[in-house]
Amino acid sequence: xxxxxxxxxxxxxxxPHEIFDVVRSAIVRRHRASAVDLLLxxxxxxxxxxxxVLPHTRPPVSVNDSAPGRAFGAQEPHCxxxxxxxxxxxxxxxxxxxxxxxxxxxxxxxxxxxxxAVLADLQECADALAHEVVVAERDTDLFLQxxxxxxxxxxxxxxxxxxxxxxxxxxEYSLGAQLEPAYAIFGDCFDWSASADDLYVTVxxxxxxxxxxxxxxxxxxxxxxxxxxxxLSLSDQxxxxxxxxxGQHGGSQYVSAxxxxxxxxxxxxxxxxxGSPKVWRVRSGVIEPIELEAQMPLGMYEDTxxxxxxxxxxxxxxxxxxxxxxxxxxxxxGEKYSLRALAASISGTRLLxxxxxxxxxxxxxxxxxxxxxxxxxxLVMCLDWHGxxxxxxx
Length: 394
Prior knowledge:
Radius of gyration: 22 Å
InterPro entries: Bact_Sigma-Reg, GAF-like_dom_sf, PPM-type-like_dom_sf, PPM-type_phosphatase-like_dom
Enzyme class: hydrolase
Strand order of the largest sheet: 3-2-1-6-5-4
GO molecular function: protein serine/threonine phosphatase activity
Protein name: PP2C family protein-serine/threonine phosphatase
Pfam family, one: SpoIIE
């Protein structure tokens, strides 16, 4: 039997569009599998889409009420037995650094549970495939196309290409975020980046609609990244992004943004609120908004200076970053979501991992708003702070 590193080497040597074929061939050879399928979660995170050459693919399955969806949600292998055929299908999460990409389904001979060594080997194959899918998306459209349950608008295409992922995790924290309407988003955006000591988180909303809003948000996010990668302070990052947007639009367009820098060893947080979305905190079961001093949005005026604010997060804290499209959404009867439903949604999702919270909250928002089209983009980001690691404490 080949060792997992042999599969990893074959994946690195394969053409980007062939990496799933490499994994499938290896699993068939090593475990006599009769079927191997890769299902990627769609942009709305409601369906798992089979990977294949379009349009010759099988129908998608639901994330909410299917065996593959159970493995995707729990992030653990899930087995389904077919006694009549003497087969068992194992569904394994395909994820990388906390970013949930999809599920690998493997049908094996036998009536009983697969041996622990077999499950471990299959999970290693799924993990190796996840890493290669992320890399391959730079050079092939196969996996990006497979994720689409419907066509993206051009503005949505621009926004999704801008995002870092939809979840990530490290021992100190877990992050999850989602945008809606997933296939027609235009102005809302999120970004994050971590180093050994710092986690930077940005939530932004470019004014306007369609491509204009997407272009504006792209300018602001890339200006912030440019300043961050130059090693500038959080205030200077906001200042230079403000200058970039103002220089392009002269104050006629602007971007509301919220910038966070978490110091991972201590939990100290630096914040710049540039007319931002709202932030809520859950601490020891208590739900409360974090009141910040809102400063001017990026690009509204020339030479705006930004002053940082500070707070500290404690192990067990949950922060929720919520855009105006969520906060101000109206029910058919005219009641704002923020009046009662938001707190109920935050409380109802308190036991879910951060990666699942945004999708569930946005589904509940749809129920509050009704079946009509959304009046604005909606963004929810959830950050669970676990605290410094034991290695840091020593």
